[in-house]
Amino acid sequence: MTATHPAIELKGISKAFGPVQANKDISIRVMPGTIHGIIGENGAGKSTLMSILYGFYKADAGEVFISGQKTEIPDSQAAIAAGIGMVFQHFKLVENFTVLENIILGAEDGGFLKPSLAKARKSLVELAAEYELNVDPDARIEEIGVGMQQRVEILKALYRQADILILDEPTGVLTPAEADQLFRILGRLREEGKTIILITHKLREIMDTTDTVSVMRRGEMTATVKTSETSPEQLAELMVGRKVLLRVDKTPAAPGPVVLDIQNLRVVDDQKVERLRGIDLQVRAGEILGIAGVAGNGQSELLEVLGGYADGTGTVTLNGQPIDLTGKYSDGRSRRDNGIAHVPEDRQREGLIMDFAAWENTAFGYHRDPAYTSGMLSNNAAIKTETQAKMDRFDVRPPNLQLAAKNFSGGNQQKIVLAREIERNPDLLLVGQPTRGVDIGAIEFIHQQIVALRDQGKAILLVSVELEEILSLADRVAVMFDGRIMGERLSQDTDEKELGLLMAGVGA
Amino acid sequence: MDVMPKWAEVVLVPLISLLLAAILSALVILAIGEDPVAAVNLMITGALGSTYGWGYTLYYATNFMFTGLAVAVAFHAGLFNIGGEGQAMLGGLGVALVCLFIPWPHWTIAVLAATVGAALFGALWAAIPAYLQAKRGSHIVITTIMFNFIAAAVLNYMLVNILRPAGSMDPATERFPEAVHLPSLHDLLAPFGIAFSKAAPANVSLVIAIIACVLVWVLIWRTPLGLEIRAYGKSHRAASYAGIGAVRITMIAMLISGGLAGMMAINNVMGEAERLVLNAVEGAGFIGIAVALMGRSHPFGVFLAAILFGFLYQGGAELALWTSIPRELIVVIQALVILFTGALDNMVRMPLERLFLAFRRGGTT
Lengths: 508, 365
Description:
heterodimer, A: alpha/beta, 17 helices, B: mainly alpha, 16 helices
């Protein structure tokens, strides 16, 4: 037996993209039958490393050993042949195929489907029994939930005889309950001798499930430790390179009068599907209302209609004044005139024009403001002066106002958007996923800015799929499921378990 | 980080494309048994060697500046206006109506009115596809192409049945009155003691085209509207986040684009032919696409690219006149330039980017 060999070993892997050194001399050993976590901020090089392992990229230097054998992985076929299976963050399934069809896709034997399907059905039953991975082989992918789809991805890998399973940010789209289920399955796979590599940026997942963990920072492996011998604080420090505050530092809220009042808000999308089915919410001055929920349950539509780029029906008032939900005065410009600022969920596709320079993005949305224009022309000099000041105040790095937005890191992009929206001094700030794709160091700063705005007596509506973020940042939490509000809680009176049940649509 | 420095992007890529087109053209000329060096010499002397040659080169360039700007403005809004040809035809109709039916005391007022008329007709012709795109989602590439054909038919009908002087066999309007005669570069430069060819068609429209380049630059880079047009062109979602209306921007960008294409008519109809004839546009609307592509949709780039294409047009005409290189092959050469500078941009860009990457990596490690 080769049990003494690591299941997978990387030696001195390096990879550069142009001037960017994505991976620098990385070595890892993962023993068979263990779960190994790889944690690091966005852009730390985790995905690059796994892509090399799966044959998407060719390393500039370094070697890969599978069970002690030096192995070349020029493409994903070779990776599969070497027993490596990958579950991507975005599933690679054919929506209108059945589970069974998806599983044999690309692994059919012979020119006829029927024998392959029969064979797959048989082994699917065996696999399901062995690993407690229950799925209906004849269900169509589009009909089953996200958690189930992920199981299909895992089954796909196992059907191809994978011994090493790589999961890239697997819980991003799951409810807490679904995530727990996933980790039970992973535990079961480990018992059966499979080796699992878990890539994540969530410290808690690492602490709860892994045996060993490697930390990556700026393309380098900063440490590999036994999970039992470390702490979240230590891991965070290794990831960022300095001590970070994991909790949000804030005083209790002092809610004032109602700023935003939403009554029976409904939104129907282009496909005539009702996305918001009668929302009632209130946000007061000086408080942060968090909207929790699994992505796709209407939170985006709520932000879109309040932000002025989707039509809705119902009554919405701001400081007692009704605002239009359809027609000429329901666009983003009118919302800004009303005193609503908006940090959108997708800063790269909504909040910023990625090809525009930082200074143009600073005026974006407010570009017709008298402060930014002189007569018919833009007052570019004024915009640039203000951008420079904002970049200083929000510590945007590099503080180069001519640099295109796409060339800033996620955290700095978000700071540009935040600086623009917060400094308009709005009555209501809409914030969607403020720290998605933002490094831990910047998260702290962004949270502080949002709390500071609250303390100035502004109303804040926060949407996030990160429960931890909602619980630590919001004063009050409303949970959305299938376009409805399932319940509201004060954040000090609730916990992830209770919210998780509400997020799954289990009424309270 | 951007892969290539800006100068490489703006200067090197078009230059290499041009060189490749030239090499391929030389091979084509060799293949039919002619001397490519002599051909290039002939093109250069024919197009740039005399004020007569310059007069033609600049005349064509003026056309291409207008149509190139038209395509560029629409490009910034993410719209591909292939209808410059039809819009320029209709612009010609606008110019003809203004010049024939209103008695103008002096060319200066006439040219202003004709510019407005040309822009108005061109813009109106672009407005219909724009509206269909904005409101109904009909793809603007398809509709603007269709509208080129309709424009040709409309013009044909107008010239044959309405504007043709009684007794004339020629499907064209009568000559415009002497008062709307535009001064040529010869007339304009004479007071400065510069002797410019009298026979060449380049005229005061060139000045208007250059002004148009400057105004388009101001519009795109120095006004809130320009920011909105560019933002909409980059990301529809971000535009709607910022409250920039899709219908409004589509309409405005296409009206400006059509207006610019229409304005070409003050050069070819009012400045050169001095009457409206069939097929007055001669494909300049389509050349505008290549000019905008090569000029990176930047007004200064459009200006330079228009002059290059003016040179190719005039040089090509000289080749046809003085050598046995057939007319069709000259079209092939022009097409090669369009192909390389416009359509095959990435063919040059990608290896060049790789080269810069390799160079930079060598520098840092």
